[in-house]
Amino acid sequence: MHAIDCDVHPTIPGMSALLPYLDPFWRESVVEREISSLESISYPVNAPITARPDWKNASGRAAVTADEIGATVFGRWGADAAILNCLYGVQLVFNEDMANAFARALNDYIVHEFLERDARLRASIVLPVQNVEMAVAELERCAADKRFVQVLLLAMGESPLGRRMYWPIYEAAQRHGLPIGIHAGSNYRNPVTSLGWPTYYAEDYAAQSLGFQSQVASLVCEGVFVKYPQLKVVLLESGVSWLPGFMWRLSKFWRGVRMETPWIDRSPFDIVRDHVRLTVQPYDGPDDLAAIEKSIDHFQSDDMLLFASDFPHWQFDGDETMPRGIPERLHRKIRVDNPLATYSRLAALAQPAGS
Amino acid sequence: MAKHVVAPVGELPPGSRKLVEIGARRIVVFNTGGEFFALSDRCPHEGGSLFHGKVMGLVESSEPGEYRYTRAGEMVKCPWHGWEFDLRTGRSQCDPRLRVRSYATGVVHGCDLAKDVPAAETFPVRVEDDYVVVEA
Q1: In chain A, at which end, N or C, are there fewer CB atoms within 10 A of the end residue's CB?
Q2: Which residue of A has its CA nearest to B82?
Q3: How does pLDDT run across A249-281, given as a tens digit for each residue?
Q4: Residue of chain A nearest B58, judged by CA positions
């Protein structure tokens, strides 16, 4: 094996594409109400980051079809498999029933338009997290298809993800061997910073890592990994280099207020090393390559990083999928071993053909 | 290890503590429910004074939402950074590899105190009283 690309984004051309996958009532509602698109401002359609210019098709979009993804991710870069994390605004919808209908349609669309068209593709289950009961039902429905290898949540939602109301999702995910993928993005119920709304896109995008930090703290402190000891969480497009500094901080303060969370019986950084993984694009590091290697050493683990191109998001130029400065000795682990260890449903990929 | 008299029992009632100096060492003696415990005053983390720490119970848990509270009065929490130490063993709760030095204690009747047991500070020894001793 050469690589498993753990973060690839299929683009949904518009709500019209989902119509065949909606039941008659919701199909008519979408048409009648002229709901043309669920694009979120997390990735504005015309923002440079949303689609690298040389990957755009004639319509100005990228990664709209399985062929468009496969040509680059498999054809050009030689990945053996890729996990589709679809970012479409179903988590932003206020109506729980509509969110549920749209999430179901979206997952079915991913199956028929992508997974059925290229056997190397896998996907994350998009959950209508507005309603946990519905989210679990959708998880159960999709989990029957082993090509779904993860569930997908956004970095910024209505409440911190460690809260117990979300635990039924984790129980079901653990039972099915599905990691929880948390991707950059917000449902915009809360400002993207705790200070209030920032002005510029760069602020919004950079603030995502603060959302991730708070989610990691919430998942650890609430005891999600104590309750669900097999559960893995993958931070997708989270940036990477912020994690050790934040874990030093959280671990230090945990020592002083340990009795608040007595179920945490070891350093939060140790817990995170066992349960949390991060995709390597984007990697936010200094220009000095030696300093980047040092920043990787701060993880004190070779198991945490997963290869991802973040295609078609514009994180790098040319074919430099592996961020510069990551030491060669880790490339194989990052490209193959760590993804296989994280995604139990990918284990079959490691078997020789025919066995 | 030599025995040092640190106080008449009556001066260290349950719930109280006393800081004594034995040679160059500063040692805190705690009375928890009639049992005496002695620890170095110096927190092994950054050197805070455990004499000024709050004495608490131990809370443990095997799952979120469970608070198993035992051993009231047998833990001391450093006033600087909140690290908890076991009065019986000196062991740190958040990092069990770390310990604060602990010392054996005892109660000796005044008439049994050999004349050569040094006192940590000067007070009269009366044969009819009991005294707290620390082995340090």
Answers
A1: C
A2: A256
A3: 999 999 999 999 999 999 999 999 999 999 999
A4: A259
ipTM of the modeled complex: 0.84
C-alpha A109/C-alpha A119 separation (Å) is 15
Q: Which residues on chain B are in Cβ contact (under 8 Å) with A226? A: 62-64
In three-state secondary structure terms, A183 is strand
Contact present, B133 and B4 (Cβ < 8 Å): yes
Residue boundaries of the structural domains of chain B: 3-135
Q: Is the pLDDT of residue B121 over 80?
A: no
CB contact (8 A) between residue B64 and residue A222: yes
| Residues B2-36 pLDDT 10s | 899 999 999 999 999 999 999 999 999 999 999 99
Burial of A32 (0-12, 13-18, 19+ CB in 10 A): exposed
**For residues A54, A56, A57 and A58, what is the CA-based torsion angle, rounded to 10 degrees?**
-90
Domains and CATH numbers, chain A: 4-350 (3.20.20.140)
pLDDT digits (tens, 9 = 90+) for B35-76: 999 999 999 999 999 999 999 999 999 999 999 999 999 999
CA distance linking residue B16 with residue B7, whole number of Å: 12
Q: Indicate yes or no: CB of A255 within 8 angstroms of CB of B64.
A: no
- A37 beta partners: none
CA distances from B58 to A74, A285, B69, B86, B91 (A): 56, 42, 6, 9, 12
Interchain contact, B82 vs A263, CB within 8 Å: no
Contact A223 B81 (CB under 8 A): no
d(CA A21, CA A109): 7
**Nearest partner of A279 among A225, A248, A243, judged by Cα:** A243
Give the whole-angstrom CA distance, residue A323 versus residue A284.
9
Instruction: Give the position of tokens 């290898």.
Output: A149
Q: Which residue of B has its CA nearest to A258?
A: B94
CB contacts under 8 A, B 29-88 vs A, are 56, 59-68, 81-84
Contact B57, B112 (CB under 8 A): no
- B61–A262 C-beta distance less than 8 A: yes
Q: Does B81 contact A255 at a Cβ distance shorter than 8 Å?
A: yes
